[in-house]
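User: Can you fold this complex?
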Amino acid sequence: MRKGEYLGNFDLMLLLALMRLGDDAYGVTIAQELEEQTGREVVVASVYATLDRLQERGLVASSLGDSTPERGGRAKRYFRITGAGLREVRDARKSLMNL
Amino acid sequence: MTPNHPPAIATWILKHFGCGPNNDVVLGDLAEQYQLNGSALWYWRQVLKAIPVSLFKELRDHAWIAAASVLTGWVLWYLGVITIFSGLTDFFFGMDLGVAFEPSHPIGTAWSILWAPVGFAASSNQPFSYVFAVLLPLIVWAICARMVRGAAGISFDRLEDGNLEGTRLAIRIHANRQKGIVLLFAVSTLLLNLILIGPFIFSFLQNASGTSTAWLYSYVGHLAMHVTASILGILIGGGLLRDRSTVANS
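Assistant: Here's the predicted assembly.
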C-alpha cells in the first residue's frame, strides 16, 4: 500500500466484515453484515466498487464461485482479506485507540 | 424453491446501463437478495444507485480514455454536420444550413452545431423535414457512438519478447469500459441539449414579436424528436441496447 493512503470508514467496515464472514464473504453476505451492524441500507454496487479498490491495493483477494438458479445463472464473487489487509486493520485500530 | 423473479424492467435497465466487470455479479446478488426480501422498491433503489456508482468508478479508472473517446464522438458529429447535413441542403435545396463555428459566441455555436438539422427542417415543414431532423441524425449519432465505443475499447499494450531486442505493441479490446464511456457520451449529449434549451427560450422570448407561433411549434416539435433520436441513436450505435449477457435467463 502506498504510504499516506488512509483507510476510509467504509473501507474499514468492509475489511472487518470480511474478517467476520471468513469463507462466506460475497456481495450478499457482506451487504447483509454491514446492514445488520450499521442499521443502514447498503448499495451492493458500492460494496464491489470499494472492494475492487481494496484489491488493487492488495488488501483483499477475490475468486469466482458457482452460479445458481436463484442468481439467474450468475456466479458469485467471493472475497477474502489478505495479510496486508489484516495489518492495515490492526494499524487502523491502533491509531483509533491512540486517538 | 421456485425462484421469485425480480422486476423485469429494473433488471433490463441494470443489465444494459450498468457498467464494469462486476455488473453480472451485482445482478446475481440482487436477484438472490430479492428472493429473501421480495421488495420491488428495494430492488429499484439498488438498481438506480448501482448505475451511477458503477459509471463513476469506470470513468474514474479510465478518465483520459473517456475524455478522448467522448471528444472523438463530438468531433465526428461536427464533421457529420458540416459534410452530410450541409451537403444535403446544398445539393437538394441550394441553401446554406447555417452552421457557424464562432468561439466568441459559444452558445450560438453550440446551437448551430447541435441543432443544425432542426432549424432547416422546421422551416421546410415537409415530410422530408422529419427524415432530415430525426432519422438522419439518429443514424449519424449512431455512427458517432459506434466510433466512441471503438475508441473506448482499444488500448495498446507493450509486450516484451525475450527472444528479440526491444518490445512490440499489441492491441487489446477492453469491453468492460466501453459501456461506461458510451453512456457518458449519451449523458453528455442529453445534458448539453438540456442546458441549451434555457438560452434558447430566453432568446425566443426576447425576440418573440418577430417569430411566428406556427414556426415555434414546428421548431420545438422537431427539436424534441431530434433530441430523442440523438440519444436513441447513441444507445443503439453504442451497443447499449444489445443483450451482451452470456448467462441463461431463468
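Chain A has a mean pLDDT of 90. Chain A has one domain: 9-98.
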